[in-house]
């Protein structure tokens, strides 16, 4: 940096600190030191680093060009060999592809059959289990219903004969009359 460039910056800095636009605290002073450090390093070491990077890029470019040229030469040499073996490799590739396709389709059919067998057997087991559960619940339901009806008949007899409730007596006589009518 030249002196003419520093003067406007210094005047602007003094003006801003005087009017408390910039506060001189620890963080700002560390920031200024960092900026000064970076500027000095760029001024002192900028050109040697730039020259070194330029040399490295030129070397890298030359190495890539050499590698490209050597690769082209080796590809041209191998191209004649590839022409001789390409048809045979293509046939091997086709046969191998057909083999893998047939193997895959056979495996797919086998897997489907196994899955269907497993599903059928598990489905049959589940259906048999459900049928057994259905029979048992039907038996249980009928037993519960018979038990409730027996209790109801016992209570009806108890209310009509022991307690002699008139309502139950008339129901009892009606049921006897209906039974007699059914017999006739």
Automatic annotation (TrEMBL):
<keyword id="KW-0813">Transport</keyword>
<keyword id="KW-0375">Hydrogen ion transport</keyword>
<protein>
    <submittedName>
        <fullName>ATP synthase B chain</fullName>
    </submittedName>
</protein>
<dbReference type="GO" id="GO:0031966">
    <property type="term" value="C:mitochondrial membrane"/>
</dbReference>
<dbReference type="GO" id="GO:0045259">
    <property type="term" value="C:proton-transporting ATP synthase complex"/>
</dbReference>
<dbReference type="InterPro" id="IPR008688">
    <property type="entry name" value="ATP_synth_Bsub_B/MI25"/>
</dbReference>
<keyword id="KW-0472">Membrane</keyword>
<dbReference type="GO" id="GO:0015078">
    <property type="term" value="F:proton transmembrane transporter activity"/>
</dbReference>
<keyword id="KW-1133">Transmembrane helix</keyword>
<keyword id="KW-0496">Mitochondrion</keyword>
<keyword id="KW-0138">CF(0)</keyword>
<keyword id="KW-0406">Ion transport</keyword>
<dbReference type="Pfam" id="PF05405">
    <property type="entry name" value="Mt_ATP-synt_B"/>
</dbReference>
<keyword id="KW-0812">Transmembrane</keyword>
<dbReference type="GO" id="GO:0015986">
    <property type="term" value="P:proton motive force-driven ATP synthesis"/>
</dbReference>
<feature type="transmembrane region" description="Helical">
    <location>
        <begin position="21"/>
        <end position="40"/>
    </location>
</feature>
